Protein 1
Amino acid sequence: LEKDYRIVCPDLLGSGASDYLGNPEIYTFSQYLNAMVNLLARLGVQKVHWVGTCLGGILGMMLAAQPGSPIKSLILNDVGMIVPS
C-alpha cells in the first residue's frame, strides 16, 4: 500500500513499544481519541482511510461518528464485542 498511500501506524500510549504510565486513569477512550485528532491535525490531512485493529478499530468508529469526521473509509479488524457508548 505504501506505493499509493502514506501509511501511518501510531503507537498508542501504553501499548506497542510505548511506555506504560503508572496512572491507569490516563488510559481513557477520550484521551486516545484526542491523541488521534491531534495526530491527524499535525499530519495536515483532511481525509483518511482508517484500518483499525482492536483499540484502533474502536477509535476509528468513535472518530467516524464525530461531526466533520476525517474518516473517508473504515476497515475494522477484531474490535471485540464491547464498544463504549
Note: The two ends are 33 Å apart (CA to CA).
Protein 2
Amino acid sequence: MADPLLKQRQDRYQQDINRVRAWFKARNGETITSRLIRPDDDKLLIDLYLRLSPEARRRRFHQQVENLDDELIRESARLLAKVDNRTQGGAVLALATDERGEQHAVGVARLGRQLGKPDDPMAEAAIVIRDDYHGQGLGTELLRRLVLLAKQMKVKQMQAVIEADNASAIRLFRELGLPTKSDTSQGETTLIIEMPE
C-alpha cells in the first residue's frame, strides 16, 4: 500500500518553477516575494551578505569571510547573480519589503553544476537565510522552489555539503521528503538528494 504522506510530499514538486505563486507567507505573517535570480540582482546579494552574521557567513561559505575587500564582494556577487537558471546554475531569492517600500534579499537558495559540465546530472545546492528571518519557514519554501528549479535544469541529484554540527540545515534538506543518502567526514555532512520525476 502506498504511503499517502509520501505521495503528498511528492505532489509538492509537480509544478513548473515559472508558474509558482510569486509570494508566500512567513510564519510571522509577513508576505515574502520569491523569484528566480536575475543578473542585475548583484546589489541584492551584496546587501544580503552584509546583513548576515559572521556565523551565518561561516556556515554558508565553510570558512571565515570577514574583512573582505569591497571589490571582491562586488565581483563575487556579480558572478553569483549571473546565472541562466537553465544549465550551469540558478538560484531562488526570497525578498522582503521594508517600511520605505524597498526590497531586500532575506534568503537565497542556489544550485550549481561543476564548471564546464552543463549536462551533469548532479548539482550542488546551498542556502542562506538572513539571521533575523530564521525560523520563519523561508528555508523550507526556498528549498521546495529549488527542487522545482532543479527539475527545470534537468538535475537528477542535488548535493548539499553542510557543516556536521549544523543540525537545522541538515534537517531542512531532509524535510524535503525526497530519497536522501548522507555521509559525514572531517566535520562535514554530504547529502545526496534524489530529485523527483
Note: The longest helix spans residues 138-152.
Protein 3
Amino acid sequence: MADRKEINILVTNDDGIHAEGIQVLKRALARIGKVHVVAPDRPRSASGHSITLHKPLRLSSVNLPDGSQGYSTSGTPSDCVTLGVFDVVREKVDLVVSGINRGPNLGWDLTYSGTVSAAMEGAILGIPSIAVSVTSYEDDTNFDYAAEFTVYL
C-alpha cells in the first residue's frame, strides 16, 4: 500500500472554487492524501457533461481559505478534471472526488449534474471517481458528515 501522502486526490465541484462544500472536503481528504483543487471560477450547476470547445479555456491560480493553492477555470466541471489530470497535477491522479454539492443528485438529476459529470470524466480517464452531495440547499448546511463519510469510503 502506498504511503498516504503519495496518494494524489483531485477535488472539483460544480458549485465553484469558493463554495463551502469543496473547502470542507479538501480539509477532510488532506488527512489521507495530497489534495489538488481545480474547480470552476463560478457556479456551474446543471452543466451536465459539457466541455469547452469554442472559446478560450482559462486556468488561474487561487489562494484557498486554508492558505494553500488551488486553481479555478472558466470551464465546466468536466473541464476541471481534464485540466487537473493533464495540466495541474502532472503526476498520476489516484482518485477524483467531486463535491460536496449543495442539493441532492438523485434520479434524473444525475443526467444534468455537473458534480456527477466531473466524477464520470475521471472514470472515463480510468481513475476511480466519486461524486458527493448533501440533500440540503440551506445556507447553514453542515458538510462535515458528508466529508467524513467520503474519507471513510
Note: Strands lie at 8-12, 34-40, 59-63, 69-73, 95-102, 129-134.
Protein 4
Amino acid sequence: KVAALTNGKAGIEGQAVDVVAMRNAKPSQVVDVVAAVRAAKANAVTIKTSARDDTTQKMPLTSASNVPDCTVVAWIDKDGWIDVWPAGGGAVRRVKRGLAGPDMTLGMDAVRTQWAGCNAPTIAVGADDAMTWGLVFDLATSALQAPGSRANMATLLTSAVPGKKLVLP
C-alpha cells in the first residue's frame, strides 16, 4: 500500500525523507515502509519515533546492501531476549528478559563489548514481530547515542539467525 502511494512522487525522489513510526507498530511494518520510501528513490531515510521519555527522537538509516563482518548485530527475539553478535557470524551474547521486557542496560553492555576492535559505522538491529517497534528503536538509539559509540547509522533487519553471518536483502 505504501509503495503505491510513494512510487514516482516528486517530493520523494532524490530527497531526504523522515518517516514517523508509532512505538506499537510491528518492526516488519516499519521496515516495509522504509523499503517503499527507498524504492521511491529517496536518497536518505530517518525514522522519528517517540522515545520512552515522550520526546521525539531520530534514527538515521543506511541503505547499504552489506556491512563489515565486525558490525554489531542486535536482535530481540520473541521472548524478549536480546542477542548480540558480529555480522560475520560468531559467538552470541544472550541477554535475558528483564521484568518489563528486554533488558536494555545489559543489552547495551553486550553491544559495547562487541564493538571492541571494530570501527564499523553501522549497527544492525531488529526484532521478532512479537515485539514492538518501540523496543527496536530504544535499543538502536541507545547504541547510536552511547558515549564512545562507533555507529552513526542503523540497518534495520526483519530476520536474523543469532551467531550466523548476517544476510541483508
Note: The mean pLDDT is 90.
